[in-house]
Amino acid sequence: MQTDTFKGQVVMITGAASGFGKLLAERLAAGGAKLVLGDRNVAGLDAVATALTEGGAQVQAVPCDVTVESQVQAMVATAVQHFGRLDIGINNAGMSTPMKALIDTEEWEFNLNFAVNAKGVFFGMKHQIRQMLAQGGGAILNVASMAGIGGAPKLTAYCAAKHAVVGMTKTAAVEYARKNIRVNAVCPFYSPTPLVTEGIGVGLDFLAEASPMKRLGQPEEMVAAMLGIISPDNTYMTGQAIAVDGGVSAY
A Pfam family name for this chain (predicted)? Predict the structure, then answer.
């Protein structure tokens, strides 16, 4: 992919303080994108934004808890206020509760997974699409999971929420295909981001055994696929849930 593929594109990224979101911001800034970054980790968000700004990128940082619709809406409004439009929306913020059997999963865990992983994506798409309709098009990427297209033993609440993300992605893609708005989801296998290393409570070697490659996907590998999905040159892909899984779905 050419380094200037995203030059001048206005991109919104939730969950940008770490993991995929931080790496996406760095790659897109290097490609000339104008960024609106959000995260509830304000210190981490400010650190990312400061580093990118010092490197010459145009960045607006907006503290954002994606479970609060008004805060997600404010990110879209910031993009329009400062850059005049929103070309790409990346709904990346996510979380997981520790692994446990379905019968041991508590209601609060189910509610929390849906609040962040599903409602956060819904709020993002709702306000991103409204802006994209007004300006004549755009592209959205929802960061789902392999748990959104298959079973995920001992991650019932997470799996249910990520299936919801895939369902919303496909629905929005069909609704707005004629409006020049593409909506896709990426479904990564486990990758050593904070969500995995701190969130689910099991060893990385154990997780790697499930992959035909017998290793986890590195964040850089996942982000490379994401950049291809949102590329302005990728004009005919919509409504897809793309597995980036080292072959897991080929079993």
Answer: adh_short_C2
Is 158 one of the annotated active-site residues of the chain? yes
**Torsion angle of alpha carbons 97, 160, 86, 45, nearest 10°?**
0
Of 200, 229, 224, 211, the residue nearest 94 (C-alpha): 200
Query: In this model, does residue 94 exceed pLDDT 60?
Result: yes
Whole-number average pLDDT of the chain: 93
Q: Across residues 108-133, what is the average pLDDT?
A: 98
pLDDT band for position 17 (50/70/90)? very high
Taking 80 as the threshold, does the pLDDT of residue 206 lie above it? no
Tokens 């990426």 sit at which residue?
A: 186
Helix (H) or strand (E) holding 204: helix 204-208
Please pick, among 158, 190, 236, 251, the residue that the annotation labels catalytic: 158
**Quick one: pLDDT at residue 214?**
86
104: left (phi over 0), alpha (psi -120 to 50) or beta: alpha
Check pLDDT > 60 for residue 19: yes
Provide the token pair at 78. 């910031």
Cα dist. 95→15, 112, 159, 218 in Å?
Answer: 10, 9, 11, 18
H helices then E strands: how many in the chain?
A: 9, 7
SS3 42: helix
